[in-house]
Amino acid sequence: MQGDGASDVVVRVLGELEIRHGGAGVPVGHTRQRAVLAVLAMEAGQVVPIDLLLDRVWGERAPARQRSVLRTYLSRLRPLLAPTGITITRQGLGYLLAAEPGIVDAHRFQRLLDSARRQPDPRAALELAEEALALWRGEPLAELDTPWALEVRERLRLERAAAVADRIDWALECGRHRELLAELATSAAAQPLDERTAAQLMLALYRAGRQADALRHYQRTRDRLIDELGTEPGPALRELHQRVLTADPALAVPPSTRARLPAVPRQLPAPPRTFYGRDTELAQLEKILTDGGERDTMVVSAVCGAGGVGKTWLILHWAHRAIDRFPDGQLYVDLRGFDPVAEPVPVAAALRHLLDGLGVSPGEIPGETAARTALYRSLLAGRRMLVVLDNARDAAQVVPLLPGSPACTVLVTSRDRLPALTTRHGARSLVLTTLPDTDSHGLLASRLGSERVATEPGAVSALVRHCAGLPLALSIVAARADAHPGFPLASLVDELDEAPSSLDVLDTGELTAGLRAVFAASSQALPPEAAAVFTLLGLMPAPEPGLDALAALTSLPASRVRVLLQTLETASLVQQHRPRRYRMHDLIRLHTTELAHRELSEKDRETALRRLIDFYLHTSHTADRLLYAHDDPIDIGQPCAGARPLSPRNEAEALTWFDTEHDCLMALQRMAVAQGRHATVWRLAWVLDTFHRRQGNLDDQLALWRAGASAAAETGDQAARCLALWRLGAARSLTGRDHEGVDLLGRALTLAEQTGDRGRQANIHQNLATAWELRGDDRRALHHAREALAILEPAGRPIRLAHALNQVGWYATRTGRHDEARTRCEAALDLFRRHENPDGEARTLDSLGYLEHRSGRHTTAVEHYRRAVTLFRELGCNYDEADTLERLGDTCLALGDRDQAEHCWHRTLELYHAQNRPREEEALRARIGAARGQG
């Protein structure tokens, strides 16, 4: 990123100090010397008096002869900075760093924000705010701990928090409420008394059709304010509450921003903090990506090489340097093709991640992989975007993720050469090998300081030999040495000489003999408690676990785990890539897996995994009950000691939990399958079932229940086997396999009858009714609906009874039994309204609308349908909204209102297409054509 002018020099203080010139890092010495430069950079273009400079760098810990030390540091900095054009000169009683303030990221951050706040167009303001926030890479002025630095750091944190809040306001104005929901729910949970955050979450919920959730959040906030501060909410929040309560039309997305461009994603991870060398490879990559000028085909580059050789570092370094070429955004997905303990990311899951980044709401993501690819390519058409597909297993994992637009650029990394991508899709390949010794020396010098490296040339050569040109190994060794600046480098060489010689588990020939030595020396040098946590990480089945899950795995408080993970991050063994979420390079994960199985007893491994499983299972069970509390719960027992499951408080938090932890839960089930933990397998399928149905994620739902049914059969537990067959049959039916669904549901019903489980029999009859309807047999469907009703009428469970009454009413209408239908549906509607269940009320109004339409009372039918559509939209039930809208269009046509009918049908077609319902979409298009022909 450049400064305000045409300079290619960047000074970064929003994180560890870094100077970049022409995209390359400039070494500026050890920590205290860097601190001097950081203070001058914060006052770029201004004279800093000597006494003030000394105070800001050292505070009360100034060394003897501090002025002499300062002069030494400045004399070393001047030649280092000379190639950049930055100068440091003595001016009277102080020093001046001569540079444009715009090249310093802290100053650029403030200028971008000031510009954003002057913008009348929220879209322009949002782009500037996102550019400003992207400048942050960590703690500002990370080299300094003086009182001045602490004060500046706190001021910058407050400014960043204000910028984040402003960005959310502008994003809400631009209609991006759905993509903000998870972020706002997390922020509101962390800051329950912040009224601005509460208002933003209420507005996002309301615009997403969740009026009831918005009102509930207001009440929770009000209760907290009264309990903890003894005060009512402020006038702004009270006014918003009234407007949400009355459904004020002015709360809708402003028309001027409604027809906005799709979301501009900024998904690139931060660039590597230390990047050295690779000039030849960067030039080759640049040539590949810029050859041809105006091009009519998409540019795809595949960077291939062994694990740890720096493929991801290279492409992220290049991508951040070239970020201005991609004004429409950057997408990134780690495909985990060579993860040692987890499966590669399925194509459908990768597409879901990419569509999330493009602002597609979960309810509008198609279920089928091919439909997701089509939607993804449609959204990228004509947009200048960078797509980074990191760590691909093979070409088959990559091809469905390629955009169709020639304006896009794709970077792929893989250990495989990906010949199919080269021959069939014109990808240009760049093979990355190890660093030459000169660059390895340079990388260590940039991290440790040239003076320290020059002092022990023999030891440095030995370190380079051990690392064998692998940037990952060099980074870890540098972190080890940097942690003990007073230790001779020769002592680290001795540790490496004594460590084991190779990662024997890898027989691919990719790794050199010294890699395990590097990992082993680094992990053995950790403090005991941090080393214990590092070893336990080898048991984690998920590639990017959260802090709370790691607390359960280790049986430590989350606050303590966070501190220990910071120690591991300092040693370059883990990375906190998002707040409270951590990941490791896959070779380090392999090392931790070896450690866990070598150092931990079988009992200790089992105890830790039991805590982890119980954390995920019990938290998910609580979240699932918030999403749907009317089904019979499953018995999962009590969590074991140390598991510390979370307790989501409402539906919004439950949805956020599942959305955030979805990949981890899927990985946990795969681990449970591999280890023969049969009860865990089917229970995980159960707790995720409602979430998958709500999100329309039918592929994952079906996959979980395939595994769940097999596992339940192994347990010998007939009740579990019945439950799993029931849910697998329902999933088969929903994915178009209704013949298989009927068979599975029939087997489940037999088991439920054998065990005498009347509640489960009712469930299965209701799903059989739906399955037979899908097969076109409404009489059999009515039979099963009546069977369910007969079971539930004496059970005393009003919501389940109401659903059964409505289902009988629906099939009674379809088979011409209108009197029975009216009696059943009106009874259901009364129950739903008395128990304040808007979902059931909407479904029953839809049934009554259908009954009135079939009875010829079209005006009444329209009233019922419109009320049902409104409720479905408020609840975010897009699937049901589509069905009701189609029937509303039929009724409008019967009333002679052809324009209104076509309006309803076209909206229905949009929803069918987004939901990947080609059968319904094709049938409706045919009916629209027939209606026009009759007109």
TrEMBL record:
- Where does the record place the OmpR/PhoB-type domain? 1-99
Q: PROSITE patterns under this entry?
A: OMPR_PHOB
Q: Which SMART domains match?
A: BTAD, TPR, Trans_reg_C
The record's keywords, sorted A to Z, are: DNA-binding, Transcription, Transcription regulation
Annotation: DNA-binding region: 1-99
Q: Which domain of life is it from?
A: Bacteria
InterPro entries, per this entry?
AfsR-DnrI-RedD_regulator (IPR051677), BTAD (IPR005158), OmpR/PhoB-type_DNA-bd (IPR001867), P-loop_NTPase (IPR027417), Sig_transdc_resp-reg_C-effctor (IPR016032), TPR-like_helical_dom_sf (IPR011990), TPR_rpt (IPR019734), WH-like_DNA-bd_sf (IPR036388)
Does the record's keyword annotation contain Mitochondrion? no
What this protein is called in its record is OmpR/PhoB-type domain-containing protein
| Protein source organism | Amycolatopsis oliviviridis
